[in-house]
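Review form for a predicted model. The reviewer records the input and the model, then writes brief findings.
Reviewer: anonymous (R2)
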Amino acid sequence: MTFPPGFLWGASTAAHQIEGGNVNSDWWQREWGHLAGAPVEEPSGDAADSYHRYREDMDLLARAGLTSYRFSIEWARIQPERGYVSRAAIEHYRRMVAAARERGLEPMVTLHHFTNPVWFTRDGGWHRDAAVDEFRRYVEAALPVLEDVRLVCTVNEPNMVSVLADPDVGFPSVGLPPGVPAVTDRLIAAHRGAVELVRGAGGQAGWTVATQAYQPEPGAEDVAAEYGASREDVFLDAASGDDWVGVQAYTRTRIGTAGPLPIPDDAERTLTGWEYYPAAVGDGIRNAWRRAGVPVYVTENGIATADDERRIAYTTGALQAVEACLAEGVDVRGYLHWSALDNYEWGSYRPTFGLIAWDRETFARAPKPSLAWLGSVARRNALP
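Model under review:
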C-alpha cells in the first residue's frame, strides 16, 4: 500500500530531553533537588547538546529521506523570569525553523512539552487560574518563532501534564492515574487560547494526546469506557474544533472488571517496562478520529530498546496499523517517530528510543540502521 501524497515522514524530539543546560526549567530544578518531586536517577545535564548541534541533527534526518521534524521550543528559555522575554531565545528558535526549511523538513513546533519555567511552578503552576493567562502571554511572545511554521502543537500530552500536576506521580508501566480535574480544565482553556493565537498568525493548531489503547476484557466494556473518559477522551473531545490532532502511542492497557490488568508474564517488554505492542497506534488513531473528527498525525510512536532490529520490527508493525486506518478511511496525514535521538527520558538516559545514538563524552552522532530504514520507507512512501 502506498501512503497518501504529501504524507509527512519525520521524527520528534523535546527541548529539555536533547538541548541540555535548561537551567530555568522546573524539571532541571527537580533533577538537582531544588524542587519537591520524585527523585531522579540522573540529571539531564548537557543532554545531547542539541541546542548547539541542531543543524547536524536535521542534516541526518533530511539525508536519510525524512520530510518533517517535530521539535519543541522551551518556555523557560523564552521567559526565564516572569514578564521578561529573551530576544536571543526567540532568535535561536527562529533559526531552527529556518534550518528545517533549508533542509526540506516541514517543521512541527511544540509550544509546551512537559516543562515549565521555575517561576511558574513555584507560584503553583497549573493549579492556579492565572496559569491560563500566563501561558497565553508566553504564546504571544513566541509568535515570531512561528512565522514560517504551518503545524503548531500547543501542549504535548495534556493528559500526562494533568497527571504530573501531582508531584508524587511518575510514569507508570501500566494504567494511568486520572489527573487533576481542575488542571485538565485549565489546560483545555489554555489550549483554546493558544489555538486562537496560532490561527491568527496563519498556522494550523492542534495538540497531541497520549493514547493508551484501552482494551476491555469481556464484561469490562463499561469499566474501560469510564477509565478512558478522564484520561484520554476529554482531551480528544477538546480537539474537535482544531485543525488537527496528534496521536502518541506506545503500548496498550488491558482493562478488567476491577481496572487495569498487569502485563502478562510472558509478554515482551521494552526498556521502559511497557508491553511490546505495535498495534497500539491503530487504537489511538481510531479513537482520535472518532472523537475529534479532525485530521490525525502520529506525532510520537516508538520503542525503548537497545536492539535496533526490534525497533525496525516494532515500527513496521505500527505502520501496518496506520495503513489499516487509512484503508478504513481515516484521514491520517503523517508519521513522526519518537524519537530522532536517544534522549533524556525524564530521569534516565537508559531507555533508548532514538534513530540516532550519540557519545556522552564527545556528542558525536551515530545514525542507527533504523534511521536509514525509515528514510527508505519515506522515499518510497510505502512499506517494503
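Findings: DSSP finds 13 helices and 13 strands in the chain.
Further findings: The mean pLDDT is 96.
Recommendation: see findings above.
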